Amino acid sequence: MSTIANTASYVRSKNAGPFWITIDIFCETQEAYQMIVDSTKLTPQAISKLYNVSEKDTKLFYLPDLKTVKISIPRSTPQGSEYERDMHSGQQYVQILDFEL
Fold first, then answer.
1. Helix (H) or strand (E) holding 50
2. Does the global pTM surpass 0.90?
3. Torsion angle, CA of 84/20/68/34, rounded to 10 degrees?
């Protein structure tokens, strides 16, 4: 089974303001991009379960010209708050790497 890690050429997560995190899945080829887009498993429901966030707040964006899938999820705590542990959200992509397509 293919995973995000062995299909995408680069995956990153980053800050999208004090209340949101963005995960970007970059593909080198159109075939890799299409494999991710066509996956029936990569859904807002699956992402919300993986990151323990609300399904209605989970957003997937498909950018075919860039061969990129962008996922936006709400932060569990606001950026810079007392219990926030990854201010720049740079480590949040790790959870999705083993996601099976």
1. helix 44-51
2. yes
3. 100
